[in-house]
Structure formats: C-alpha cells, structure tokens
Prior knowledge:
The chain has 384 residues and is mainly α. 52% of the residues lie in helices and 0% in strands. The chain has helices at 16-25, 32-35, 45-61, 79-85, 90-93, 100-114, 125-128, 132-155, 160-172, 198-211, 221-237, 243-252, 262-275, 304-316, 324-339, 366-382.
Amino acid sequence: MRRTNAIGCTACVLGAAAITAVFAIGLPARPAVLAARPAAPAWDAQAAARYMDDREVWWQGWDHDKRDHGTRCVSCHTQAPYALARPVLRGALGETGVSPIEATMLSDVEKRVRKWKEMLPFYSDEIYGTGKEIESRNAESVLNAVILSSYDRGQGQLRDVTRMAFDHAWELQSPTGPDAGAWVWQNFEYTPWESKESQYHWAALMAIATATSPGDYAAEPATAEHLKALGSYLKTHYAAQPLLNKIVALWASHWFPEVVPESKRDALLGRIYTLQRPDGGWSLTDLGTWARRDKTPLKTAPDGYATGLITLVLEQTAPANPHAQRFDHIQRGLDWLIANQDKATGSWPAWSLNKNRDPNSDAGQFMSDAATGYAVLALEESRR
C-alpha cells in the first residue's frame, strides 16, 4: 500500500477481507492533469516548518498544558496537525530523522501511552464537571494513536508503542447506545476541536489513521471488528453532520466507500465546488452553522484551514480517470495556498469560530496552527 500522510473522517462496514481488498488498491495514481501542471510559484517549506516547530516549542512550555508525571496535554489544533504535517517536510528540508522538537513531543506521548494506567485524565470531574474524565480519556486515546501512527507510516512499520495506543483507544470505543462505535469526545463547546461536532470528526480521523497504518494492521481480525463498529457509526451519523465533517467523510471514503456512496458523492462535490471563492480559497465559515460565544460576527474570508483541508481531500480522493472540473478546483486551491502563506511567519491564516481572538495571541494562533498543517499536507501532496 502506498504511504499516505492523510488522516480524516469516516468509515464503512467492511470485514477483514474487504479491508484487505481496499488496501490492495491503494490511493489513486497521480492524476496526469496535476502531474503535468507547470512548476508552481514557490512556497516556503522551511518557513512553514519553522512556524510549526516554534508553535510546538511554545505548547511544550505553556503552563496550562502541564499534566501529571511531567507530561503535557495533547491538542487537536496544534499537536495533531503538527504530527501529521511535519514528517512530510522531511524530504524538502533534507532531514534524515525527526527533529529534537518532534522527539520531545513523541517522547511525551509515548510516556503517557506506556504508563497509561498510571496517568490521570487531562481533565477531572471534580474541577471541570461530571463526565470530563471520560471525555478527556477518550479524546487522548484517539489522539495518541493518530499522532504515533503518523510517524510510523513514514517508517513502514507499526511499533509496539503505537499498537499499544490503538489498544487503549479500542478499549474505550463505545460498545452500545447512540455513540456505539465512536468515542464520547471532549466537549467544552469550542468548535471545531472540542464540541458536539468533534466526536464524528475524530472518529473519522481514527478510521483513516487505522486504515493507513503500516503492516496491514487494519486487516487484522480484532482490528477489523472495531472498524466494523466504527464504520457503522460513521455511516449512520453522516447525514446529520455539518459540511466540514462530510468533507472528511469524503476523504475517508477512499478506504471506506460506503460512508459516502457514489449516489451522494456528486452532490457533496457540487456543494464544495460552489463554495470555492473566486480567488480559489474556501472559508470555514461556510462549512457549518456556527455562532461565536461572544456574539461577534464570524470572519467570512477564505482561510488556510478550510482551503488546505478541502484541497487535500480533493487531491487524495481523485479517481484514476477524473473529470477536469475537480482538478480545476484543486489547482485554484493550491494557487490560493501559495499566494496566502504569510511571508514573515511561514503560516497560513485562519480564525476562531468561538471568539474574536487577537490573531497574534498564542490562543489566537490555534486555528493558524491547524491551517498551516493542512496547507503543508495539500502542497506536499501536489509535489508527488
């Protein structure tokens, strides 16, 4: 199976044999219409890596993320995109292994995985309210698996500690009820990372992380059973999702095609195409019905998170014999990303759906952290 750095949302009900068949197919061949495109204007991979590294260093030093046993809280908006995107820059930067900054992050995650039973949840019921311990434990288990498997893909081997992280997540997978197959997610009403929409989104990312793990891990009988339950959840809850989640469902549909069957795919693509702005970008504001907690108006301009994510999804789900329309949208998305990288910081712009935050503040950069990760993934995908 060709290595992929993708991770996204959704799965369908597949047995081990069907999963193996999907793996044998791999991702689509590089579409000729993109392979033949003229050399794009330069974007600064080194500056993007510097921004992501600096933000990871800040996260590691932030007092708020400190937890027991000298460990830190993992974050959906900063560390997860960092773990997905930073390894793909290795070739462009001439690196031969993980940087010291990445090594520090990975060591922290691995410590919590290895000492899982000793570690306290990130959030306690006593301080944060009933149910927060379960929510934070569930979220951490999925994030640990997503982060570690991203690095293992580059090595082509699933390490024991990564398998352990998956085991912890599967143990917490809801067995019954309306959430069966998923994980009750951490919810502090912070969209899109810690809110009611997050459960589906990260369940889907977990499906992709499992499907793309090396060594045919997803085809193992025990794993296939968990994927069957996860796929059932993703399929039956798809219709109620905001467009943001349906986009990651489209991404995951490469491995789990029943989640977004062909009968629904064209309509979904049509919506995505319609929402692309004349300059080639997409706006996160258009991908759901959001409202800020402080009642301030949402920014409606295109942003790096929506544009990077959608462009990447369109790239990785393109069929072998695509219609040209999709690649026009991909090209325009790539052009927007190249034109909108901040030359000073190396980042891409994005804004909070929850508050009118100062974009230069540390918390105000959380969305730019995610935007930069997905912009890098989309731009590096275009180089294949």
